[in-house]
Amino acid sequence: MRITRRTALAGAAATLAAPAGRSLRQRAAGKGLLYGSAVSADLLRTDPAYAALVALDCAIIVPEIEAKWAATEPEQGRFSFAGLDWMMDYARCHGMAVRLHNLAWGVYNPPWLAGALASGQAEDVLRHHVSAVAGRYAGEVLAWDVCNEPSDPRWNQADDLVNIGWKKALGAGYVDAAFAAAHAADPNALLFINDDLLEYEDAASQAKRDGYLRLLPRLLARGVPVQGFGLEAHLRPERKLAEKPYRDFLRELAGMGLVIHVTELDISDRTLPADVATRDRALAALARQFLDVVLDERAVRAVLTWGLTTRHSWLATAPEVARTDGLPPRGLPYDGLLQPTAMWRAIASALDHAPGR
Question: Is the pTM here over 0.85, yes or no?
Answer without folding.
Answer: yes
